[in-house]
Write a structure and sequence with these properties.
- Two copies of one chain form a homodimer.
- A six-stranded parallel β-sheet of chain A has the order 2-1-3-4-5-13, with helices on both faces. A six-stranded mixed β-sheet of chain A has the order 8-6-10-11-12-14, sandwiched between helices. In chain A, strands 7-9 form a two-stranded antiparallel ribbon.
- Chain A is elongated.
- Chain A is an alpha/beta fold.
- Chains A and B meet through α4, α5, β2, α6 and α7 of A and α4, α5, β2, α6 and α7 of B.
- Chain A binds a DNA duplex through α2 and α4.
Chain lengths: 336, 336
DNA sequence: AAATCTTGCTTCATCGATTGAGCAAATGCG
DNA sequence: CGCATTTGCTCAATCGATGAAGCAAGATTT
């Protein structure tokens, strides 16, 4: 890799030499506490000018080595390429910056090994705090970080060892299910039990959404068999092939479907396309996730939007109050 | 901010003490060149074991301070919350990691000031290289980095001072326009001139796409007035209000539209919704961008997918060959 | 047996910024 | 004028990891 530096970087010692002063004075001026260190205004201005002329950039590595807190805040995220996590990451960066943190983000593509590796890398970079978003094994991350004295917060998926901020999956799923059922009633004249597609049976969110899904059926006194639930994972391909199999299996099939994320929705729609004569107009879909373009194009697709701004606001609140008790904050999602 | 470290971190000195050896030996063992430094296998194993027991994590700040290359590779990106940039960032991270780099990514929300600030922060973190993706002023970034001896590469939008990797916007736009025109022919029986919505008149991609747009009209001998072009920026709100105005302005309006990104498409579709009786079925849309859900749901929406894997492959090729000549690589986009 | 080589470590300076301690000159006070 | 205080700065240790240089003990050669 030919990435050799072109020239040596300017340091505070170079600046000190040019200004005819000491590195210590330069440091004090450039990091803003020259008043506290009783540097004269003249010298401060001179140093600032020379630093600018020389295009000086602080060596963060050296600086952080001396300081106790890095103000780096790490976030581990399963995917970028998705409107939900994309908006989490984008807003997280903005808010972190506003609050004086330096955000360090890593995408783990739902790979548990990468999650741990990423956490380890963050510890090496001396992060002050790690946010584990949608982590497969958040407690593992918490343990690892705790060993280095670093606090963690879980986002989107909860853990037992650190505070967790998640959507109110039960209430959201119950209401979403209700809406799909109503839509079935309107469009097909009857309320059949729905199918539940996507997610992992073991993950907390899927379990809670299933509970809401079941509750909504119970609310309408609709009997729901367990075999209507297809928790085949989130990936589009898995949903697609699961539906393919299902359709040819002889098991009962529903026109109404609860889809567990836009990622999964992609697979469901692809299946609809391939399924031939039937268009998505023939289905009543609901998705526990939000995508503005789907909201505009999918006429029969109900959506639940997780309240990302509220979740992140709550997260920074916890950080600011130093509240790291392992309890769960449930944020109500938004239905359009 | 209550993010105080819980306990002191384990250092190589602690490990040295525990192992009854020197910090230097510990360092040699843990960074893998103990053979070169002639440390015995026994001691190496002992140190490794103790390091593991203690949950030791390298202090990257200290390590980087000593090394000449950081192997950190920075990327500046305008948005995360978008399928195109989302996939760029996700694939960039994966590829960078595979090639032994540590990816550091910052989102600037198309704010030129933030772009510069982000570049400066990256220099502070001693990045070996900066990728400016879709930057408003890539040359400014290149100049800033060059002053610190750091190379840059432009992605998505070209600059004059560093190598640039962009889509073949002209060819892509020409073909996309052709397809929209053909679709108009099929669906409405005639080929009217299309409208061009979104993008900034000054940006290279928009200019090239406009050139392709015009060429395709010329190919079909369709006269195109300049007032069919609405380069109102990328933001959905801007496109929406621009179309609103346009519709009531008395200027000619087309059923066929070339939309400059999925971000802009959001505004166009929102306008279609509000425009009342007319549904998007009444339009022939084409979008210079790709979103899998739009591809599935938007029956009348042609899409051009920029070839992100090819662009990034080319980018890492440049890095590996140390090729930092300021020339432009055009990557053909993919039409479905 | 002396000379040389090899093995397996340790010592110490270094990277660049930070900060407590210290010191000389200027100023204030009685 | 003499002493205390304030002002404006410098010195030097330090953060943790790295690696060149050095050194002692054992192995090998002549």
């Amino acid at each position: 890799m030919k990435l050799d530096r072109q020239q040596k970087r300017t340091t505070i010692y170079d600046l000190a030499e040019l200004a005819g002063t000491s590195a210590s004075a330069v440091s004090a001026v450039l990091n803003g506490n020259w008043k506290k260190r009783r540097i004269s205004k003249q010298l401060a201005e001179k140093i600032t000018r020379i630093a600018e002329e020389q295009g000086y950039a602080l060596n963060m590595q050296a600086s952080l080595l001396r300081r106790e807190k890095s103000h780096i805040i790490g976030m581990i995220v399963p995917k970028y390429d998705n409107r939900y996590f994309g908006s989490i990451v984008e807003l997280f960066e903005t808010m972190a910056r506003d609050k004086g943190f330096f955000p360090l983000i890593t995408c783990t593509r739902r790979d548990p090994a990468l999650e741990i590796e990423a956490a380890r890398a963050m510890l090496s970079y001396q992060v002050d705090c790690v946010i584990a978003t949608g982590a497969t094994d958040p407690d593992r991350v918490t343990e690892l970080c705790a060993a280095a004295g670093v606090r963690t917060i879980n986002l989107d998926l909860p853990g037992k060892l650190a505070p967790s901020i998640i959507s109110d999956n039960f209430a959201g799923a119950r209401e979403l299910t209700r809406r799909i059922l109503v839509s079935c009633q309107h469009r097909f004249g009857s309320m059949e039990p729905l199918m539940f597609v996507g997610g992992r049976g073991g993950d907390h969110n899927t379990m809670e959404r299933l509970r809401g899904f079941r509750q909504a059926h119970a609310d309408h006194e609709i009997h729901l068999d367990d075999d209507r639930v297809i928790a085949c994972g989130y990936a589009p391909e898995k949903a697609q092939s699961a539906l393919m199999e299902r359709a040819t299996s002889g098991l009962p099939f529903s026109k109404g479907m609860f889809v567990n994320s836009t990622i999964t929705l992609e697979g469901v729609l692809r299946w609809v396309r391939l399924a031939g004569p039937v268009s998505e107009q023939e289905f009543a879909l609901g998705c526990f996730d939000y995508d503005p373009l789907v909201a505009l194009l999918g006429d029969n697709i109900e959506m639940v939007r997780q309240d990302v701004p509220a979740m992140l606001a709550r997260m920074f609140e916890l950080i600011e109050h130093g509240n790291f008790e392992p309890n769960v904050s449930e944020i109500p999602p938004v239905l359009r």
